[in-house]
Amino acid sequence: MDFFKIYQDLFQYMKQGPLNRWLDNLIPQLEQRLLENPHGDLGRWQAALNRLPDIQADNITLTTSAITANKAEALSEAELVQLTSGLMALSPWRKGPFQLFDTYINTEWHSDWKWDRVVPHISSLKNRVVLDVGCGSGYHCWRMLGEGADRVIGIDPNYLFLTQFEAIKKYCGPKSPIHLLPVKMEEVPSNLEAFDTTFSMGVLYHRRSPIDHLLELKSTLRKGGELVLETLVIEGDNEQCLMPEDRYAMMRNVWFIPSCDTLALWLKRAGFKDIKLVDLNRTTTEEQRATEWMTYQSLNSFLDPEDPAKTIEGYPAPLRATFVATK
Ligand SMILES: Nc1ncnc2c1ncn2[C@@H]1O[C@H](C[S@+](CC[C@H]([NH3+])C(=O)[O-])CC(=O)[O-])[C@@H](O)[C@H]1O
After folding, report:
1. Which ipTM score applies to this complex?
2. What is the DSSP string of 205-264?
3. Binding site membership: which residues?
């Protein structure tokens, strides 16, 4: 993986603006991590990425449910096979969907449904510099660019998601101002104050210190910038928060699931203003399900078969809230 090459344009940009403090140590850190082999399958993923055929799209769509790359001329049979098998080798695909020419990547999640619930409530992304924390394959980053963002940076420590992102970028905009950095939120320097909008969707419950996560998000924003926070919640008042004894819906790394009132209080205590709950939604087995691109178990296996209002562990089934707040 050639970080200099994939982040060339980002570094040019960062050198000029407030992000430059982040630059100093980033490349050596990423390279050091590569030497330590961050994942046993990384070599296989990289080989699959390198085998993808070179196809120039002549039409890109970032504003419809599937992020789409199209070409007037039909692909050859060999190109189609190479493309589909290369993308399949990057499975499981969790966040999407994507349509690359004739290949539809039917991901585990209908991430477009989340986007449709969130986007009516946020400030316009036109000309904004945007951070998407825990961006997965980067699906929402493309939608943010489609909304007119000037530049989108996604961060996610998972190298499969980085490889998937690079595969999509190869066809949907190799030169577009959109990047995924394989780092955790905790590794982003504090007080960057560089972003106009910061998204954290589906990450808070993975953090052992949720208030620290909120403070870290705040420190990425310029004064007056907007936080878009989406996370699991429970029903209840501002004295309630669920800490699962062990797993929640089979997920091992879930720590805190607050009520909406508790979360609003956390945001207030973290120093945010204009805190608004803008959406509350129970996740359905239509939105999250196994497909040929993600063949492991999915939500229907994580719910109580006798009572789908409960997880298999007996907790309330996944309910997700979106909050918007200002720094
Ligand atoms: N400390 C961390 N820092 C950054 N990323 C992290 C961290 N811990 C986990 N992640 C990443 O956060 C993502 C959470 S998924 C949400 C995807 C998308 N946002 C979505 O809203 O669909 C969860 C869900 O599907 O609910 C994963 O990609 C992790 O690798």
Report:
1. 0.99
2. GG-S-HHHHHHHHHHHEEEEEEEEEEEEEBSS-TT-EE--SS-BTTBS----EEBHHHHH
3. 95, 109, 114, 134, 185-186, 201, 205, 320
